[in-house]
Amino acid sequence: xxxxxxxxxxxxxxxxxxxxxxxxxxxxxxxxxxxxxxxxxxxxxxxxxxxxxxxxxxxxxxxxxxxxxxxxxxxxxxxxxxxxxxxxxxxxxxxxxxxxxxxxxxxxxxxxxxxxxxxxxxxxxxxxxxxxxxxxxxxxxxxxxxxxxxxxxxxxxxxxxxxxxxxxxxxxxxxxxxxxxxxxxxxxxxxxxxxxxxxxxxxxxxxxxxxxxxxxxxxxxxxxxxxxxxxx
Length: 232
Known about the structure:
- There is one protein chain.
- By secondary structure, the protein is α/β, with parallel strands linked by helices.
- It has helices at 37-47, 63-69, 85-95, 116-125, 170-179, 188-194, 214-231; strands at 8-14, 53-58, 79-80, 103-108, 131-137, 142-146, 149-154, 160-169, 200-203.
- Helix content is 32%, strand content 23%.
- The protein has a seven-stranded mixed sheet with strand order 3-2-1-4-8-5-9, with helices on both faces. A two-stranded antiparallel ribbon has the order 6-7.
- It is globular and about 55 Å long.
């Protein structure tokens, strides 16, 4: 039998406890339109013609929740997360090294409204760059606030809000996660920035927001319902 080729693998980071949503279970496993936020993300990537496999990073206490969420889906064996998000990503990169992928997409399970076209656009950018991310330009006036006072207005020119998925050459991002594992970063592009690599930005939509709190989750449910009704 011909060995499967894994050119593009997606890592979905779903190891958080999600306590800011104020629910009894983590937000990635909450029910949303007969599904869960995690399952919605996994299915979107699995349906994309350029994605060869998906691996999910989970919390060690969430195995049952995870297995219920992805039941029936063809995913790679899960990997347990670490103390920080970057540790979780590094664990996944180490696990999938045996598949020898060419490119990696890294995505947060709390973002379910990314578009299929954005996956293709990110992979296209990897023909010219070692990494590419989704982001939206800052449109509001930005204030620097400290000690209960506004200190200054920050020029918003060239400011972007980073999103996921983010895409990278596997060898590059895997090596940099090892090299800078003692640094504290909030996304994977930051590790490339530390090393001086040029990272491309693809304009995204504010609808690709991160479900962080209870209000975000309620908004997500309404948007899912609206999308379902529109397609019906």
